[in-house]
Amino acid sequence: MAPKQVVVVGAGPAGLTTVEGLRRRGYDGEVTIIGDEPHAPYDRPPLSKRVLDGSWEPDRTQLRAEDQLDALGAEWRLGTPVEGLDLERRRIRMSGGDELPFDRLVVATGVVPCRLPFGHELAGVHALRTLEDAAALRADLLRGGPLVVVGAGPLGCEVAATARKMGLEVALLDLLELPMLPHVGREVAQRIAALHERRGIRLHLGVKVVALHGEAGRVAAVELADGRRLDASTALIAIGCVPATAWLRGSGVPLGNGVRCDETCRAAEHVYAAGDVAEWFNPRFSRRMRVEHRMNANEQGTVVAANLLGAAVVFEPVPHFWSDQYDVKLQAHGFLAPDATVTVEPHGADEAKFAAVYHRNGVVEGVLGWNIPRELRSYRTAIGSAMQPVPA
């Protein structure tokens, strides 16, 4: 029997795609979409690049036109944080005490940025997750002065690249010895480090930040464990994110590294999860995973929509992510494990284009393309197969 009332908590890509999937499959019941931000669904990847450098106006990030959203026939409750879940009574508790009943619940609340235990009260200290975050960070970058980026993961590297292109002096810091090391492994991480150094970024790797110092209430320096102080007019804290699941604690919904789901994205009776917040079992790789990438949110929302209406579709994608830094486009499929054996296959006379193939025990687990978007398609099909060269 189709549910009469579906509630989606999270108004980002995963929540939007779920609702679109429901309507596309003919569901004509009630749908309510709750979002803690006041915005209709928008795209986050451009925040660290095109919105930050001013080449896009913020409204260009909107995922759908107003008439497309209206056509979904959903009730939108934006700017409305949720505070709890009564699973037995099937009710969502929102800020202010209001409750909302549901037949089926989709958790698509995404993630929240991690914070340092100090310094966030200073002006000029930023995280980057929302449109408001991007606007505030851009305003401070336009003031000029050195930027210190704490955290050399994909977000930190992208912001460092954007700020450098804007003409700022930039220092990029990380506890690990290479940027993006857990994401791409040593072979490619070394190339990313060299890329940033060639562009004038000052890398401080294998270091710990112990304090943020201010003057007149604004950040002025970042102190490292070895006693060095780096001047900073602006600081971005990009040390990772955690799933936005605090409102689910004690509800009976299983939690781990996110909302724990089975292979169909079902977390509990009447409850599914999609997007960055969902930790599910992927049979293709025989492991549990949680993926913080845009395409995964889209694909997972589509599967959740089908399963809400009685299907039993197994969600077993090949993980995919991309990152744009300067004029380099990184695109990856599968698992790029730091301990994998990596074979680099050039595409051209220099290192401007190449494929990195990640394999263990003779089996391809993942591939990364460096400025080879077309050629990468043939590599993707090799994932899960015996290791062998892929024709250029």
Provide a descriptive summary of the structure in words.
The chain has 392 residues and is an alpha/beta fold. The chain folds into 3 domains: 5-112 and 242-308, FAD/NAD(P)-binding domain; 115-239, FAD/NAD(P)-binding domain; 327-380, FAD/NAD-linked reductase, C-terminal dimerisation domain (Enolase-like, domain 1). Helix content is 21%, strand content 32%. It contains 8 helices and 28 strands. It has a 6-stranded mixed sheet, covered by helices on one side. It has a 5-stranded parallel sheet with strand order 9-16-10-11-12, covered by helices on one side.
Termini separation: 51 Å
CATH topology of the largest domain: FAD/NAD(P)-binding domain
Number of helices: 8
Highest CATH level, the class of the largest domain: Alpha Beta
Strand order of the largest sheet: 3-2-1-7-21-20
State the CATH superfamily name of the largest domain: FAD/NAD(P)-binding domain
Beta-strand percentage? 25-35%
